Structure formats: C-alpha cells, structure tokens
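User: Sequence recovery, please. Input:
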C-alpha cells in the first residue's frame, strides 16, 4: 500500500458498518506506523508484511526463483487462511509481489479494485521479462514496463477480468475520513500552495542540467504571488533529491503524510511536474487549480508524452505551461485552462 492507496483505503472504510471487523496489510513500515495514529471507528487489525522488494521481473533467473520461494513463505504465513472475505485493493499497484497476492487471494475471495485513474494499457511492454515472470513466478496477465531502472508490473484489464475482480467506487463520507486522520495533521497545516517534488531526476527526457535551477525559478515566481508561510513543499517519500531552493518550504512533520491529506479547502494551487495526486478530486476541492510542469522540466521525449497522456487521462482541469512566462500569466489572471 502506498500513500495514495492509504487515502483510498480510508475512503472505503468510511462507507463500511461501524461494527465490521477489518484487517489491513501494509508492505511499508512508515505507512504502517502512520496507521497506528488513525482513529478507526471499526475494530481494526494491522499487519506489517516483510519487505518483499519492488520488482521480481527481470532477466536474473536465479533471483526470480528465489523471489518465488520468498513469496510462497510470506503468503503461507499472512494470507493462506483468508477465505470468503471481501478484499479491497487500490490504484498504483505496480508491484509484482502485490499483484501476485491479489491473483492468489482472488481464487477464494471476492476482490474489489478501487481505482480512480486510467490504466496505462498503451505504455510499451517488455515481452521477455513478462514471459519469465509468468512462467517462473506465476504472475499472469500483467504488462511489464521499465521505470527508473526497475521492471514493474502494470495491472491490466485482462488481469481484472481473468481474476474476476469487481471494479468499485465507494460513496465516500468525507466527514468520517477527516475524523479518522485528525490526529495526523500538524496544527495550522492549511497551505494555499502545495508543491510536490521528487522522483523525476532519473527519468529519461528530464532536463537534468536545469532541474534544480528550474525549481529555484518556480519558487521565485510563487513568492511574487504568495507569502512564504502559504507555500508548502512535499517531497516524494522515496525520492528526496536534496533541492536547495525547496528546503525552506518543507515541513518535516508533513513529509510522511499522503499529499491528499495536505490539500484542504483553503488550498488554491497544486503544482507538480506530474503526480497521481492530480487525480484527487473531492466536492470541497472545486476551486483547486492544478498546474503540471512537464513541459518545462522535460524535453520533447517519448517518456514525457507518456506522462502527459497519463495526466490528461485524469480528466480534471489542469494547466500545462510550456515555459515560466506562461505560468506567470496563469497566476496573474488567477485562472486555468486545460
């Protein structure tokens, strides 16, 4: 479970009966620790599974077989006795071990997939590692891509159909969600501008030469329109790229929190190069303006085009400035165009 998935889990939980016992499995210790501070209405058990790593897929046959053995041991300990239950899983499950767990749980349980952005069906697949993963590890009907040096599994419509997974969108109770997470937010965490950064420096097509300079220029522009106290920067939980210009705007207490929790009714701007957080849309966020900086930080490249297509697939009004002058124009008129 990642940060976005934790929010989705809470949204599902907000719709469930108060007396319904729940079990939540975590693969990352920071999120597991975060969950201990959440005020659940239901009786909840939380489990931290062993770290199984990000990806099985690749060309190292010995590693794939070793990972299969490791997976079998963990599944036997944590999941083998789960039968006739409702299983919920969430978006961005680009993780071989996680999808294999879902594939195996689906044989004896009802599985529901709560996803709120389009599957990346058209992203180019890596056929050879895909076949090795299928025949040596047993994970079927996924697409393997190479991302930031790792081979990762993408969930596909075929995976959903073959495992009889039900697509599911809950009728969210925002008030209950806010009550559950009230203990997580530091006092007066109401940024007018939320900047999300990190995770792009190693991507193909990124303008590495001007990467840090561009962030410095972004901050300089924002300070012409907003006070320093109104700007909050959140770094990607797995990619703290030590960007000097952003450090004065980082609150250490908020770095472990999902970005979606930091977006309040007072937040006017959400700015990032790209982010699944752009898909986050709730009734109280109707005035939120989303600005994606892909065209500034990336050069013309196939990878940039893939990211652009994914962002536009969220179908939420977003501005894509081609340079900083266009960004200034948007901020001046306090408007946004898709």
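Assistant: Recovered sequence (338 residues):
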């Amino acid at each position: 479970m990642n940060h976005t998935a934790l929010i989705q889990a809470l949204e599902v939980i907000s719709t469930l009966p108060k007396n319904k016992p729940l079990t939540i499995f975590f693969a990352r210790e920071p999120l597991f620790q975060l969950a201990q501070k959440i005020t659940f209405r239901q009786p909840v058990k939380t489990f931290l599974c062993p770290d199984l790593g990000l990806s099985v897929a690749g060309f190292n046959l010995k590693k794939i077989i070793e990972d299969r053995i490791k997976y079998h041991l963990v599944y036997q300990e944590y999941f083998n006795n789960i039968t006739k239950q409702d299983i919920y899983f969430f978006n961005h499950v680009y993780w071989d071990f996680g999808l294999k767990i879902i594939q195996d749980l689906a044989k004896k349980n009802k599985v529901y997939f709560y996803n709120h952005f389009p599957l990346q069906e058209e992203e180019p697949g890596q056929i050879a590692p895909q076949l090795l993963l299928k025949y040596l590890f047993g994970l079927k009907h996924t697409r393997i891509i190479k991302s930031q040096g790792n081979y990762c599994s993408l969930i596909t419509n075929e995976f959903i159909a073959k495992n009889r997974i039900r697509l599911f969108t809950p009728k969210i109770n925002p008030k209950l969600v806010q009550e559950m997470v009230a203990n997580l937010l530091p006092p007066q965490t109401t940024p007018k501008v939320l900047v999300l950064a990190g995770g792009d420096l190693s991507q193909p097509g990124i303008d590495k030469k001007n990467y840090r300079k561009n962030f410095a220029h972004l901050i300089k522009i924002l300070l012409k329109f907003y006070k320093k106290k109104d700007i909050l920067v959140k770094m990607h939980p797995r990619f703290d790229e030590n960007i000097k210009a952003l450090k004065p705007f980082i609150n250490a207490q908020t770095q472990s929190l999902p970005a979606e929790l930091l977006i309040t009714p007072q937040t006017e701007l959400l700015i990032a190069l790209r982010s699944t957080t752009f898909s986050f849309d709730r009734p109280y966020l109707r005035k939120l303006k989303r600005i994606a900086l892909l065209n500034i930080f990336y050069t013309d490249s196939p990878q940039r085009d893939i990211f652009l297509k994914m962002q536009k697939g969220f179908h939420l009004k977003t501005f894509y400035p081609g340079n900083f002058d266009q960004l200034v124009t948007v901020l001046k008129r306090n408007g946004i165009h898709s």
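Residues 185-333 form a domain with the Rossmann fold fold (CATH 3.40.50).
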